[in-house]
Here is the input.
Amino acid sequence: MGLRLAFASLIDLKDSYTEGHSRHVRDLTRQFLEYLKVSSREIEEITSAAELHDIGKIGIPDSILKKPGKLTEKEFLEIKKHPIRGADALKSLQGFDGVSKIIRHHHERYDGTGYPDGLVADKIPFGSRVLSIIDAHDAMIYSRPYRKAMKEKDALKIMEEEAGKQFDPLLVLKFVKFLQQKDIYSQYDPVCGMAVNSQQSLFNVIYKRETYIFCSQVCLTEFNNFPEKYIAASQEKNNPEDKPYG
Ligand SMILES: [Fe+2]
Here is the structure.
């Protein structure tokens, strides 16, 4: 457990821009698995993999990882090494065998066109199929250096369209249902773009008679410093670039 936390904080240290991504993916993975009623052993294993899935990105130069523009083919090849690097780093640790396998395959696609091994459908470990859904969803609803955050409903529409292509069709339908049922997402943090539960968020502010809610104190403070900037950005139409998710 302690080791896992140390690893997770290493990932955030490497890529402060996506800080919180590992944590969000971990938490949503756990909730989704509980909804699916899988065994607690599986929940622990897949949740650990979710938290550590991008640990292989530690080996990628910042010039590529934080590049705001489009990646060259060579740079994308470098990015594509992260599942194997992460899996290999963990493989030697006792008890991390299953976690390592899930991480290795988290960028496989259901139709077999993913990486690193081009596995198809049920050949992809269950945990990896779950993780790829949550990872992509989280990447879509957050801003990245190269892409603005998408609205939750736009993200879910894309995910449904990818059923049977990028994602396990049955799992992705269950995921959409899970989100709708839980009604987790009712409002968006205007700073990071994350969907926030308006009933649960402790961070909110009223500005020009409008209530804004935030995922954290960090985003709330940032908003207070530049409110007009974030209001304008949140009203702008989303314009996602053609980039790999996750
Ligand atoms: Fe990844």
